[in-house]
Amino acid sequence: MFGGEKKSVIHGAVDSVIGERAKFKGELVTPGAVSVNGGFEGKLSSEGEVIIGRGSKILGDVEGSHVVVSGKVNGNITALQSLEITKSGRVNGDLTGGRISIEEGSSYRGRVRVETGKSEIEEEIIIEDKLPIA
C-alpha cells in the first residue's frame, strides 16, 4: 500500500491517500493521516502521520506529527514528534523534528534542527549519495 516500504501508521488509519498515478497541486490541510504515493506540489500539513511512499515525488513543504519518507522530497519537513527517512528516501531541504532518524543508504541535503521540548539542538548535516534528487 505504501509503495513497497512496509511502514504502518502509528496511531490509526490513513484518512487521505494520493494514489500512485495521481498528481496533486495546491495546499492540503488535514487533521488525519495522509499517504502520498504519487506526485504532490504545494504545502502538505497534517496533525497526524504523513507517509511519503516509495516512488512518490513532493515539491513543497511537509508538516506532520510523525513523518516517514520513502520517496523524494524537495522542500522542508517539520515533524512535531518523529521523522524517519528510509533507505529509499531522498530529501533536499531542512528537517525539524523531535526525533529524527536517517537510515543508511538514504540521500539527504540540508539543515537538521532537533527540538526536544525545553532544549533545542541545531546541527547542519549534509549527507549525499550517488543518486540525484529529481
Structural class: mainly beta
Shape: globular
Total strand count, please? 12
Measured by DSSP, the beta-strand proportion falls in over 45%
Q: Report the uncertain regions.
A: 1-11
Q: What is the makeup of the main sheet? A: 6 strands, parallel, barrel
How many DSSP helices? Answer: 0
Note the gap between the termini: 23 Å
Helix content: under 10%
Strand order of the largest sheet: 6-7-9-11-10-8
What's the overall average pLDDT, rounded? 84
Rg is 13 Å
Which sequence of SSEs, written as H and E, runs from N to C? EEEEEEEEEEEE
Describe the structure.
With 134 residues, the chain is mostly beta strands. Helices cover 0% and strands 63% of the residues. The protein has a six-stranded parallel beta barrel with strand order 6-7-9-11-10-8. A hairpin with a 2-residue loop joins strand 11 (107-116) and strand 12. The protein is globular. Residues 1-11 have low confidence and may be disordered.
